Description:
Elements: E1 3-4, H1 15-27, H2 37-56, E2 64-67, H3 70-85, E3 89-92, H4 98-109, E4 114-117, H5 128-137, E5 142-145, H6 159-168, E6 172-176, E7 195-199, E8 210-214, H7 229-232, H8 240-255, H9 257-278, E9 283-285, E10 296-301, H10 305-308, H11 310-316, E11 319-320, E12 322-323, E13 325-328, E14 331-334, H12 336-340, E15 348-353, H13 360-374
Parallel strand pairs: 1-11, 3-4, 3-5, 5-6, 6-7
Antiparallel strand pairs: 2-8, 7-8, 9-10, 10-15, 12-15, 13-14
Helix pairs in contact: 1-8, 2-8, 3-4, 9-13
The structure holds pyridoxal-5'-phosphate (PLP).
Pyridoxal-5'-phosphate is lined by residues 69-71, 97, 99, 147, 151, 176, 178-179, 199, 210.
Amino acid sequence: MRIYFDNASTTPLHPDVLETMCSVLAEDYGNPSSIHQHGRKARSIIEQARKSVASIIQASISEIFFTSCATEANNMIIKNCVQDLGIKRIISTPTEHHCILHSLDYLSKKGRCEVIILDVDAFGLVNINQLETVLQASSVPTLVTIMHGNNEIGTMAPIRIIGGICRQYGALFHCDTVQTIGKYPINVQDDHIDFLSGSAHKFHGPKGAGFAFISNEHIISPYIHGGAQERNMRAGTENVAGIAGLAKALEISTANMETNYAKILALRNKFKTGLSTTLDDIKYNGNQDDNFMAHVLSVSFPPGPKAEMLVMNLDIAGISASSGSACTSGIEEDSHVLQAIGHRKDRKTIRFSFSAFNTEEEVIMTVEKLKSMTKYH
Length: 377
Ligand code: PLP
């Protein structure tokens, strides 16, 4: 039996989502743009999904656009805000996902807008006072893009406060909610969110299905040109089964939010207690007391040859977890997120990320394995 502790990377499909998608793939193969009955049926599946996603985040149906993934949604929002809304300045953080940071690099290198990266503290928490100071200093049209929950270290940003500050200073607010939607309540009205992205495969839906929320107040042009799909906003024949799966998965996650949270938090706590009581010099990256996502536990192991081999040895032992480093030009380096929080280079970080499909036995087994893998330190 393999243990899957990499749920921040992607999640297994929920069986009910699989059933929904199989039925759509088998029966509802019409092209949603066709006006005959097969087409109309496929269209109604998409519109039902749109209605469901919109109601979960308190948006209007006309504000939801299905995409191939969150990377596409984020690119579309950020680049077309600059192109169409006269945005001259984007404020962000150093711990965003690469689909945000690389888009910002691109825009800044092309001279399309100024990019300001705020400071984060040692837990990855964005400096809100600095955000306010920067917004106060200039009234140039601004987009603020700050993620809700960090995929590597689990720290959560106070998005309602950030949204409120953006509103106060007339800046637009984009929030990458890929790691939190379906896990934490999100209300685009109360949170003052103008743009948001989500991705089905992070909440037990399929890969290749994402969405963008774009407030009706801000009209941007399409990112992909072609047919009139998604009300001219995103050309290309729709991934009907993927969209149906996305909506089904989001409905299930949202309906079970509290029980899933309690279960995942208990697994995380057990894992932490197990590690801290059996291994020496264990540290945790990101917020631990408050404002953290229960499903992400970023563990920093002490230096040593054993630590270097841990992710590989876990894999050999049947446990999938994620390394906190990336291979840049042949050299293993801490990820940009770990570097931003000042993680010590000689320590080794592994991210364990959980879902409601994990069990206590899996946690106990993994702690045991880690104990034997690190015991000669
Ligand atoms: N944003 C965050 C915070 C993520 O964790 C990810 C995926 O890891 C993405 C964006 C990109 O999502 P997708 O895989 O749908 O492109």
